[in-house]
Specification:
4-stranded antiparallel beta sheet, Rieske Iron-sulfur Protein, 2 helices, TAT_signal, single chain, about 20% helix, Rieske_Fe-S_prot_C, elongated, 2Fe-2S, monooxygenase activity, alpha+beta, iron
């Protein structure tokens, strides 16, 4: 018996499908809002990856040799992200106007947290923990 037809209201199936869709959307939204932290490879841990003077405030720099992007979203606040785009693995190649850019399909990621600013990427960049030691930025 179909409740939609007999009562003119919303049937069980429609309610259950709607609830399932809302649940899936909530889980997806919850996952997207969390920064994705990565454990550094053994060869990066403790390694100086950039000089503080080389990273502009509000911008950043891509280091192709280590496949990292180092940013300075605010004065004295440094971040490091994987330079591999989460869409198809291409190497992001530039930081411009507060975003990290991927040349392959046009994805952009925010310098502040590596989150997606423009797709087709649907996940943010992996973030690495860093510390400033003297005038260097070190992966910890």
């Amino acid at each position: 018996m179909n409740d939609d037809v007999t009562t003119g209201g919303i049937g069980r199936r429609a309610v259950l499908c709607g609830a399932g869709a809302l649940g899936a959307a909530a889980v997806t939204a919850g996952c997207a809002s969390q920064p994705r932290r990565a454990r550094p490879a053994a060869d990066l841990r403790g390694k100086e990856i950039a000089k503080t003077a080389d990273i502009p405030v509000g911008g950043g720099k891509v280091y192709a040799d280590t496949k990292l992007v180092v940013t300075q979203p605010a004065q004295g606040q440094f971040k490091a992200f994987s330079a591999n785009c989460t869409h198809s693995g291409c190497l992001c190649n530039r930081v411009n106007n507060g975003v990290i850019e991927c040349p392959c399909h046009g994805s952009h990621f925010r310098v502040a947290d590596g989150s997606v600013a423009q797709g087709p990427a649907s996940r943010g960049l992996l973030e690495y923990s860093v510390q400033v030691r003297g005038d260097g930025i070190v992966v910890v």
